[in-house]
Amino acid sequence: MSSLVLVGYATRYGSTQKVAEAVAATLRECGLTVDIQPMREVRTLTGYSAVVLGAPLFMFHWHNDALRFLSRHREALTERPVAVFALGPTHDPYDEEEWQDSRAQLDKELAKFPWLTPVALEMFGGKYDPAKLRFPINWLAGKVPASDLRDWTAIRSWAADLKPILAV
């Protein structure tokens, strides 16, 4: 197996893609060779020595592309290190209950895959832009203002900490 790392992402409105791009760039700066792709486009994990997966939580669930990816690549994922991140809270960076609820949602989704043992697991704040929402979500969201809780320093730090774990 080569030392090529896959950063796979699922995104609904593009926010998680931006985080995945920052993770990939940081891993490259750390000296790793990185390929970044939407999870739905990945056909095989052959050639990858490690995988980083990122997807948002939306309506109490992890993105369906991420769940399908885990199911489709189960065997290959058990043979290499896998790091996971999710984008969760979008409104109050200091609302500890919202962060705990988001982490519990992610844990519940990952519990559907008991064979998966991530070498790193992180929850980041997400981005909310009501102007991008489609019906009926835009109608249900009401007048909640736009927000962006993505902490780029924390994202890059987490990615840099992955280097010794992923460099095999």
Overall outline = globular
Low-confidence stretches: none
- Assembly type of the chains comes to single chain
Helix content: 25-40%
**Total strand segments:** 8
**Beta fraction:** 15-25%
- Average pLDDT, all residues: 89
Query: Could you give a short account of the major beta sheet?
Result: 6 strands, mixed
- Tally the helices: what do you get? 6
The arrangement of helices and strands along the chain is EHEEEHHEHEEHEH
End-to-end gap:
9 Å
Rg from alpha-carbon coordinates: 16 Å
Structural class: alpha/beta
List the helices and strands and how they pair.
Layout: E1 4-9, H1 15-29, E2 33-38, E3 48-58, E4 61-62, H2 64-72, H3 74-77, E5 82-87, H4 96-110, E6 120-124, E7 127-128, H5 137-141, E8 147-148, H6 152-166
